[in-house]
Amino acid sequence: MTQTLEKDVTSTLKESLKFVFGYTQFRGNQEAIIKNVFARRNTFVIMPTGAGKSLCYQLPAVVLDGTAIVISPLIALMKNQVDQLNALGVNAQFLNSTLSKAEITKVKKETLNGEVKLLYVAPESLTKEENINFLKSSKISFVAIDEAHCISEWGHDFRPEYRKIKSIIDQIGEFPIIALTATATPKVQIDIQKNLQMEDADIFMSSFNRPNLHYEVKPKINTRKQLIRFIKQHKGKSGIIYCLSRKKVEEIAEFLKVNDIKALPYHAGLDAEIRMHNQDAFLNEDVDVIVATIAFGMGIDKPDVRFVIHYDTPKSLEGYYQETGRAGRDGLEGHCLMFYSPNDIIKLEKFNKDKSVTERDNARYLLAEMSSYAESSVCRRRQLLHYFGEKYADQLCGESGGCDNCHVAKEKLFDGKEKLILVLDTATKTGQRFNAEHLADVIRGVPNEYAVSYGHTQLDIFGKGKEEELKTWLSVIRQALLYEFLEKDIDNMGVLKVAEKGSKFLQRPSPMTLAKDHDYSDTESEDDEVEQNVPPTRSYDEVLYDLLKGLRRKVAKQMSLPPYVIFQDPSLEEMATTYPTTMEELAQINGVGQGKAKKFGKQFRRANLQICGGK
Ligand code: ADP
Q: What is the CATH code of the structural domain delimited by 3-205?
């Protein structure tokens, strides 16, 4: 691209970002991704939930000539996006099995006339002959494939129809592809690129850090009481509570209702109609809290979920991260609270007893990672990002929403230099071929089968750390991994090797702060706890904010849309700070494009005026 052209593109994109979407700045990689789509290059986007994937194809679709085809796996997700785009004044439509014949004819006519900027299609509809023919006659700008991990059998959400997408696109014509997903291990990533024949694609991988989320784990003691207290401190805010079983979901929902909290249950055992009703009630803010099994969440992109609580310990960190990721998608506060008990892990282990050996081993490994996460006093963010294979700066929680460990772990800190030397020495002297449990056994002088047959009982380090418990050594080993003194052997599951940083440390050891794990056998009464969750003071006018929220709910009801489609929370907060009373002022608010200012502006300006006048 020449420099002038590049400049033109940059300013065109910025203008549309403000004019249509009402945002003043791109987030993370958005601009680079959009420019790549503009340059008609194949693009592969890996971004965590809530980071802003949709804009990466919505904005180029609005600016480029023709219609962008967006392939999306869920009808609810499509409807949601189409509603949001229509509210912005963008002509977006969907083509799926819920439409009547007349509606299909209308969508096709508008597309052929070049009026539709984004056409959402389910992969099933895409395979239909008549749709292929119709798309062949339309002017297509590019193809976006959302939730691209559905292509891969290695992913957690495989959809066989997704594997046919590429051959169908080829029948329609030759277009650039943008594939997007929030979860892609390297294996899944290669699978997606191969299947879409886009090995040449430019890859944009974002950090999985969600800076606005606050992570906290509490012991499962007086849990119901803790739950009520937490929700009352977050009064009027939307939250999800995940429970392991349907029965527990029902019980907790009922318990909350009795305690004057507007809550409804959601699980696969409910009638489809009731399930839909409860979900809508949550989206439309008729209730604040939804109590659910993990059946709830996929395809729901409510941006203003302010807290996600795991009442029971989840089965894996992947699941936990996916579920907590549903909090604070709009970039504002998101509190992720998990109640943990080692008994939950034992209970979950029992569920696996009928599985095959490999499945059981895998499930046990995931559970062990889960309990390590809960019991460790190391920064939660560091642990999570390490789990997803990400390198990071030292002070993660420093700039982010923080975690309980970063706030309270100080008294648990100790200089772990000597312990770390012993761990690294043991890994070296046993030939870097063993897992954490074996290393801990050798250090503690446990003559297990391997220690005897490999001669580890003869080593000078054998039994050198016998005064400490197994738990302590496992914790030190885990931290050695987290701080990259040890690394996992890629080819042999569980095997630990000394990393470069570890070798350097052994040559010149220096003090190294480590943290003692939490003790969850402690059953101290919750009443003795220090009150920690004092709600922060607000920088905006709370009276106006509540008024605007009420107004938003009313307008949304009239239009049968979820309230966040009208304006999202960050926009309302800004209005309650700057009191925009003219159309121009309103259009300056983040998240309010010209389309929304025109559509909904009048009533909201009036509310601002009313408050301003009263001041
Ligand atoms: P994802 O699909 O990656 O989970 P979304 O596309 O739903 O995320 O975006 C998450 C939230 O971020 C939405 O509420 C969206 O309006 C908001 N958002 C996206 N891009 C921007 C931006 N550049 N500035 C401000 N907010 C943004």
A: 3.40.50.300
